[in-house]
Amino acid sequence: MLRSHRLRLRLTQEALAERAGISSRSVAELERGRGRSPRPRSLEQLATALDLDGQEREEFVAVGHALFWASRTGRPDRNLPEKGIPAANLTWRQLPADFPDFVGRDEELGLLAAILHPDNHNPRLAVLSGPPGVGKTALAVHAGHRFSSWFPDGHLYAALRGATADSADPAEVLAQWLRALGVQGSALPAGIDARAALFRDRLAMRQVLLVVDDAGGYRQVEQLLPATGISVVVTSRLPLTGLPGVTSIDLRPLPGPTAVKLLCQVAGEDRVRAEPAAAAELVSACGGLPLAVRIAGARLAARPHWTVEAFNERLADERRRLDELRHGDLAVRPGLHLAYQGLTPAAARAFALLGELGVPSFPEWSVAALLGVDPAAGAAVLEELLDARLLEALGSDRAGQSRYRFHDITRIYARERREAEIDQAEWTAALARAATGWLAMARQAQDGLDCLRLYLDDRDHTATITDQRASAVAADQPVEWFEAEREALAVLVSACAEAGLAATARCLAGCSADFYELRGYYDDWQRAVSVAQVACRRANDRSGEATMLRGLGSCLIELDDSDAALSALYPARALAEEIGDLAGAALAGREIGFMLSITGRVQEAEAELRAAAEGLEQANLPLARALALTSLGFLLRERGETAGALDAIYSALRIARLCDGRSTEAYALRILASTLQVCDRPQEAERVAREAATLFEQIGDLIGAAQSLRALGEALAHEPHRLDEAEEALTAAAALFRDQGYRWGLALTELSLGEIEVRHGDPRAAERLRQSLRYWTDEQVPALQARTLVALAAACEQLGDPSARELLMQAYELYHALKAPAAAELAVRLGILEGTTSPT
Questions:
Q1: Domain's final residue, options 196, 219, 250
Q2: Which of 55, 89, 201, 590 has the highest local Cβ count within 10 Å?
């Protein structure tokens, strides 16, 4: 007790002796339990010097008196009451000193208070569980000190060292506690059952807190539990839910602000608060683990010349981070190493391989795939890693799969184990097994998607399903499966590319691209095919390189980067033709034709699309041919050849319906709706647009649904009395485009809304249309640039702006260059001869 109170005040023995007016030698001997017991007068002096009052002072003085009288009677057990000292006043204070820099855990402390309070008539047993370094012991000790007034008979403490080879024997722990309770010599029973019974008897009617630290499992704890009515806190990596009446409290890493507060307590508040961004980055690198944050703070405190940012630079290299998180006898690595040493060989191998795999989270089946064992063996290994608290269970993902992950610090240690114990060849083989497992699942999911096929996967590269239950999940819930595995797939493409598994990298990227296109994940799409394309080139896989280049070009079209798209698509087609891949060449040609059509190179575009449609028919890719015909219809419509446009689109629709290609059908319907508007058939356009929107919603293509709502809005806008309905549809489309980050669709919708505002005479139309014009000018889309100029000219006319005629002249020049029918209409409005820019 003396040592605990002295350390709480951060006093040396000499400083306390000076404050109390006694010798420092006396203080040292009292703390070591040697020499004479304290005299009553010295007790009062020490209590005053320690700033004790109330119940704390009474308990301190009572224990001192008990020791004093015990020494006078020569009793070997100084804790026994003598000379009329009531047994109720005798206390045992075995808790380690409290942590003066303890922060947070308010919710957990509130729950502990409810469990441990003497008025609680339910079992007063709490288990604090969690991974190494999460602060289980600190919370247990802090709670013991915080609620000490509830336990006038004191605290008993035992460290069981459950994760070590020399874990404590419960029988010996009971012996130590019984000695503390006054049982000596031959009175101490020999067997654990007898000791447990005597322990329960000695604690009957007492108000004591037991703190059992670092329990390895049930057997270490069961015999230590006293009779009902005693409050007990156990710390363990396991939740020990099988103990009767237990309340398990699983500790998580500290949230960012609380971790920063702990850093302030250890390293100094002014210093840490001066670099708020660096402090947040540092505790993030520590993963919020209190032990790691405390070590980081201690290292900063020991080196006043370091800035927080400078220490972050030292932590940035993951291969050195655990070395940096060490200060004196404090370190993160030993706790992890102890847990690792307790694993079976299979679990230790899985731990190391999973750490190197580096995916943010993973499903159960992947453990078996990585190890090359059956699902049952993989599940057993997973359970062992969970019990060791080296993995964390995340619950079910979107597809209903159980999902798991490493804490960042634990993952770094797992990578160390892989580098130390598993050679590169074995690692590459394990990666190949895991990646092809994901590929097999991804193909199951891809086959269930309703989307526009990009034909980027190479099914000749085999991937075998090994877990039928997991395979059924991917097949039954394809979108949800891809959403759940999205981050893992991105990591695997890069890992395979780095390991020289180019074929697997390209198939993973190609298989995922259909999903990326469906959901508008263009950054994921671009990154995956780019990484795989480089890997294929390095491996001299020319077919893979051509396919990934084509996939990159298709993605860049969606990202509105026409020049970059064509720079990828032309080489992709040339390489495909060179190696005799006629289907790949035709697919690239289709994308080239579409890109040329929206950038105004209509003659080249028409030739490309017609050639692509023919090539895709020869390659027996009917749905791809339907897409080429739909793009051809769009082009012909822009040129004013509406009859030819309708023929091409209706042909595409027939193919799509014959092949049950719902996404291709929906795409054709959307283009048909816009074409029917041009043909002044608004009722038909409205019906077709609604049909397209419904179909896109059913297949989960939100961008397609938004495009169809835009077409619906434009169809409704043709009828003056339905402008409000049109605006409602367009506003809904804009919201979807904005949520998906699809700038092209958003700019086109803003154009349509601006045109409606012009019809309403709304003065806000001009600014909306100017923003749309900037986009089409930057993206070099002349047809839409001209359309926007015409609408903006009308808005300017309403505002009396003289620039309206100049805007119309710019629109005319663009339409004239495109050879669009709108050029003749503008020529009449402007009073110029068609083919010139001069007035008639």
A1: 250
A2: 590
